[in-house]
Amino acid sequence: MAIDYTREGRIAIFTLNRPEAMNAMNVQAWRELSEAMVKFRDDPEAWVGIITGAGEKAFCAGADIKDLLPFLREHRDTPWLMPATHMRGLEIWKPLIAAINGVALGGGLEIVLACDIRIAAENARLGVPEVNLGIIPGWGGTQRLPRMIPWCKAAELLFTGKPVDAQEAYRIGLVNKVVPLAELMTTARAWAEAICQPAPLAVRAAKEAMVRGTSMSLDEGLKLEHDLETALLSTEDFIEGTRAFVEKRKPGFKAK
Question: What is the mean pLDDT of residues 42-48?
Fold first, then answer.
């Protein structure tokens, strides 16, 4: 399997598993990632996902130049044949955490950018070198980077193709935290567990409001926020959360 998908309680783990190719994405890996994302989206027991890479050197080195890029060129006029992922095509409101265990280049960084929380190991290097191949990032890099970091830093990454190390990525706000490689998954799991504590439907609504709101005017975003909050007022979790607060006890949320 190019993508290993497992679940530990409420936490789903996606492992990009092509260490012999620095976990580069080939056609099979892309299809398996799409299938795993749908499984995660539709599993009521999975509340948070963590994406990482196999081994200690690479999260994902990008698209497999010998496999995926020729496929993309062949199907450039039929993009709908490409499987949908969290990068494009799938709406996944459950939180995703990227545990970056080494280089995350090109499509690898774009997988990271489509996650909500990003934790990098000290050996991580992040970049989008596509311009050196005569193309641009095609999985959201040109759109997400300028929305997440200062325009000039996004331009630097996109125009030069040069990567940044983990500390620089942290400095410019590209990642939330940098930790030793040995502590990466422990840290990612701790963040995932923390996200599992609040009401899951409220967490998903918060993500949906953030993601959809970025392409709306403020007035439209405020309307979306109001509609999502109104929907949450009728959930069992809202009743449980307010009751637990009054009774000074830990709530037992059920995502209902």
Answer: 97
Q: What are the boundaries of each domain within the chain?
A: 3-196, 200-247
Q: Is the pLDDT of residue 172 over 80?
A: yes
183-221 confidence digits (pLDDT tens): 999 999 999 999 999 999 999 999 999 999 999 999 999
How does residue 75 score in pLDDT terms, banded at 50, 70 and 90? low
CATH top-level class of 200-247: mainly alpha
130 has catalytic annotation: yes
Token couple for 173: 């706000």
Return all residues near 210 (Cβ < 8 A) that are at least 6 apart: none
> Of 32, 91, 110, 156, which one is the catalytic site residue?
110
Q: Is 156 a catalytic residue?
A: no
Nearest residue to 253 via CA among 25, 107, 47: 47
Q: Which CATH superfamily is domain 3-196 in?
A: 2-enoyl-CoA Hydratase; Chain A, domain 1 (3.90.226.10)
Write down the catalytic residue from 8, 20, 45, 130: 130
Question: How much is the pTM?
Answer: 0.94
Task: Check whether 80 has a pLDDT greater than 60.
Answer: no
